[in-house]
Write a structure and sequence with these properties.
140 residues, mainly alpha, 2 domains, 6 helices, extended
Length: 140
């Protein structure tokens, strides 16, 4: 009896955590303005809610395929299409993040710590490098 209750509690906690993380990620995507920027550049701003729904649906379906290891039919041709879309998505993220990189210099100037900017950049690079190294070394 208690084992079943403990498993249900763990399931609820896991699902709640996943929903919270996914909501944070999608709100970050929307806040960066990636979707709005695409709608603006393609002059299709009236469909922005549809675009945001598609981003969320893509994330949800991607997670379902990953977690439940659902096999996708059509093999290599569909994998090639997926690769194109994944590349577009990654490129869009890179461009959106590049647009907000001017936040660091403004932040440092306002806090009057321009003198230590090199140390901050090096520490961020080392942290990112060590984090990636641990990730791949441990095989997570």
């Amino acid at each position: 009896m208690w084992e079943w209750a403990a498993q249900c509690l763990l399931a609820v906690i896991g699902i709640s955590g996943g929903v919270a993380v996914a909501a944070g990620l999608f709100s970050f995507i929307v806040e960066l303005g990636v979707v709005a920027d695409f709608a603006d550049r393609t002059h299709t701003g009236e469909h922005i809610l549809l675009y945001e729904d598609c981003v969320a649906l893509g994330g949800i379906l991607g997670n379902l395929v990953y977690v439940f290891q659902i096999r996708i039919p059509l093999g290599d041709p569909l994998f090639a299409v997926y690769g194109i879309f994944a590349g577009i998505f990654t490129g869009c993220w890179a461009m959106a993040l590049a647009e907000i990189l001017n936040v660091y210099p403004v932040f440092m100037r306002r806090l009057k710590i321009v003198r230590y900017m090199t140390a901050f950049v090096i520490s961020m690079a080392l942290g990112k490098g060590l984090g990636a190294g641990l990730f791949f070394w441990r095989g997570w």
